[in-house]
Write a structure and sequence with these properties.
single chain, 249 residues, alpha+beta, Arc Repressor Mutant, subunit A, four-stranded antiparallel β-sheet, 9 helices, 10 strands, 22% strand, globular
Length: 249
């Protein structure tokens, strides 16, 4: 798939082994409560909530925590609510960055985002400056280990997927947003369960980074991801496997 971002892969690996589980749970609780507040507390009738519940289960969040967060969203807990705000900007090498946030204090959030961007060689842009570079897609990621890639490819295309992208360690099944649940269900019926499944934003084009730009962009993306109010970081950069190996050494 054109424009598949290296940061997408890095985020998934980071999420799977992230030692900062408390921070991850805090973000998931916000997502659960907000989804429940906006669309109701029944995951079967609220696709957005169903996605977040799946994400929470994938992160090994206890069932009681999930249920409390949902109840909080529909009015059974305290009354604090979060606004959804999108921030756009640029990183080293001209990388486009789009941030999805949930915040109870927009002034605090924009100040923190601007500070992190500036510190790492980026800058905050105006609304709409990079959003056109990203497209909403369903994304189901499978671990390559013990997986028949040809069988997955055939099953995914029969299930209605748009594309299948093979990486060194994972295979991504890409869908139109409207087809995500159908494809996911069809693959599950075929005995194929993804490691992660989400409706995300994928870049239509990417910027290839190396050297200091690659190092600074990875640091920037990680710092943005660590902000409490930032739920998702999207960026259109790519780094070659060789350069990643060099940076890891």
């Amino acid at each position: 798939m054109s424009g598949h971002s290296k940061w997408s892969t890095i985020k998934r690996k980071k999420g799977a082994v992230d030692a900062k589980r408390g921070k991850l749970f805090t973000k998931l609780i916000r997502e659960l409560a907000t989804a429940a507040r906006l669309g109701g507390g029944d995951p079967n009738a609220n696709p957005r909530l169903r996605l977040v519940v799946d994400k929470a289960r994938g992160a090994n969040m206890p069932k009681d925590n999930i249920e409390r967060a949902i109840q909080k969203g529909v009015g059974g807990g305290d009354s604090e609510t979060y606004d959804e705000v999108i921030y756009e900007g640029y990183g080293p090498g001209g990388v486009a960055i789009l941030l999805e946030t949930l915040t109870d204090n927009k002034n605090r959030t924009v100040s923190e985002v601007r500070h992190v961007l500036t510190k790492h060689g980026g800058n905050l842009g105006s609304s709409g400056c990079v959003a056109y570079l990203f497209e909403k897609r369903g994304l189901l990621t499978f671990d390559r280990s013990d997986l028949d890639g040809d069988a997955l490819l055939e099953a995914a295309l029969e299930a209605g997927a748009e594309d299948v992208v093979e990486g060194a360690e994972t295979i991504d099944v890409v869908t139109a947003p409207a087809d995500f649940e159908t494809v996911k269900g069809n693959l599950a019926a075929a005995g194929l369960t993804p490691a992660t499944a989400e409706v995300t934003l994928e870049p239509s084009t990417t910027v290839e980074l190396d050297g200091s730009d690659a190092e600074r962009m990875l640091s920037l993306a990680d710092a943005l991801d660590d902000l409490d109010d930032v739920q998702n970081v999207y960026a259109n950069f790519d780094i070659s496997e060789e350069e990643m190996a060099r940076l890891a050494s």
